[in-house]
Amino acid sequence: MKKSKPRKALTSKRENTSANIFFSVQVFAFICYIAVFLIGVFTALVTDISQKYDYIFSLSLFAVCSLLTGFFAGMRIREKGLIVGALYTLPLNATVTLISCILNDFSVGINLAITLIVLISAGGIGGILAVNKRLSR
Known about the structure:
By secondary structure, the protein is mostly helical. Helix content is 74%, strand content 0%. Helix 2 packs antiparallel against helix 3 and helix 3 packs antiparallel against helix 4. The longest helix is centred in the first third of the chain and has 29 residues, at 18-46. The mean pLDDT is 77.
């Protein structure tokens, strides 16, 4: 007779593995970035904002989006909010940076450094807020 292999325990589909958490956070961040882009386009079409304020406007919208992404990641991980929030915002921040470099003919300046610092910091702050909100319950 042939020996049967032991069966693996069935796991739920909503298991909180790191891959599931990373994927769900990145999907949430992508949706936020698309929403921010649409808000920016709508605002630019409706209002008459001077071009000198475009950088500040887009940076503030992306900072809010990074904050929300860090908050969502912190709620899912539930510990080490600063590190989790900052690290989970890196892939989409890298995408924003790459698109910015392509559109500006790969000119790297102080604006790029400021953008990265603000976006990573906002993600970290969002992670901290989420973890502290979880602990207060």
